[in-house]
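Weekly modeling sync, notes
Attendees: AB, CL, MP (scribe)

Item 1: holo prediction request
CL wants a bound-state model with glutathione before deciding which constructs to order. AB pointed out that an apo prediction alone won't tell us much about the pocket. Agreed to run with the ligand included and paste results into these notes for async review.

Input as submitted:
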Amino acid sequence: MKLYMVPLAPNPTKVMLYIAERAELGTDMPIEQIVVNTVKRRNREPEHLARNPFGTLPVLERDDGSYLIESLAIIEYLEDRFPQGSLLGPDPETRGNARDVERIVDLRIAGPMGSYGHARNSPLGLPPNPELAERMHGNLQTPLDYLEKLLSDGRPLLLGERVSIADCTLQASLQFLRYVEADLFGERPGLRAWDERYRARPAAKNVLRW
Ligand SMILES: N[C@@H](CCC(=O)N[C@@H](CS)C(=O)NCC(=O)O)C(=O)O
């Protein structure tokens, strides 16, 4: 299989972190990772549009040559294809909780963080938009409080002791924020400690560049 990706972007990074965490748990998935340079707009060229008409990354090319073009669908596919040592967890309760927090992180945090970063200091060269940045900052407060509260019981990771797809999705967005030199945690010591702890993991060290 092939994963078309770009290192800084949050959605590819979340899949790359997932693959690295699975490797740490003992499942080395046979996936070649291929960079598509979004700064040079290679993702908008016919070669990539043939893989994914929306031009986004990541894209997983399966062994039969067909594609998956949504990051969470790619992770779920890999979970189903390599169920031994699944990251989602062994039972419906664990899997339900992991999916729930991952959706909250992706929809309520990763999206606004991406918009905030691009509005402040876009790596793709988008024009600054202070008004949008301020609105995204406001939208992020309740979801960040939600995560801070989850962590307030002393758990090391977002779902407890075991790493989850929610950790991968959150860290993928934080790498992007570090690159654009933004910090949105405010006075949230639980999230700051989680960030340090997650970045010390071998999978994070293998994948993260910023
Ligand atoms: N819902 C898609 C979103 C994919 C997405 O928006 N990827 C961004 C990178 S994080 C991208 O490719 N942006 C470049 C572009 O749209 O030109 C997913 O989860 O995979």
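Recorded for review: The chain has a mean pLDDT of 97.
Action items: CL to compare against the apo run; MP to circulate these notes.
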